[in-house]
Specification:
Elements (H helix, E strand, L loop, with lengths): L1 H32 L22 E4 L7 E2 L9 E2 L5 E2 L7 E7 L2 E8 L14 E5 L3 E5 L33 E9 L2 E2 L5 E3 L2 E6 L2 E8 L19 E5 L10 E9 L1
Antiparallel strand pairs: 1-15, 2-5, 3-4, 4-15, 5-14, 6-9, 6-15, 7-8, 7-14, 9-12, 10-11, 12-13
Amino acid sequence: MKKQLLVLTCLLASTQFVTAQKKLNVDSLAGLLEVWVNVPLVTPGITNAGAPSDATILYNGNGLGAFQKKDGSPAGWRIDADGAVTDIKGAGDLITKEAFGNCQLHIEFREPAEVKSSGQGRGNSGVYIMGKYEIQVLDSYNNPTYSNGQAGAVYKQHVPLVNASRKPGEWQSYDIIFTAPLFKENGDLESPARVTVIHNGVLIQNNVTILGTTDWVRKPVYKKHAAKLPLMLQDHGDDGNPISYRNIWIRNL
């Protein structure tokens, strides 16, 4: 009997040891997979459209000091009573004084409430990341046009997943996550640009590969350029279709 009790005691102790050893091994493995680093603190905006604490404010109704024309002269767009900035025909593109590469961009735009044209002539503008890669701005509410030229398209390259356009005269938003292209020293492309676009809260471009500079008539190609370049908002030059923007901020990534 004593011998049996001894065997049982030994078996129980052995089982407890094995269980403890397994737990120790699992805990050790879990610890090996843990990463402890200092994660920067960023204070978010009051709303999701608000600029976080680490954003660069490009426009919030208080002047166009962050922008200029191509020749470096002061920006010529009109600041309205409601704080929006509106394109004036022939005023020229809005170009940021600061250059950006990888970035998160928030921008809000409003197409003219009075519809005066159709297709590409209806509230046409564009957000040119690095001044080269266009996300199309257009009144695409009940306005048929070529699909890779409608609102939210990577112009002439990628059709948006859906048309999330609001009615003319209503404010809309783009939230854009952009990864800049990388080039080798000899000028060859190392990795292409990529972009994700959320239009009015709806995903319309899902980390798509940009094929090169967006152009109206030429096929996209890459040519080596700086790691950071200015952002551009297009003056399309259409009479009677003044596009308006507000609440523009950007984060370097």
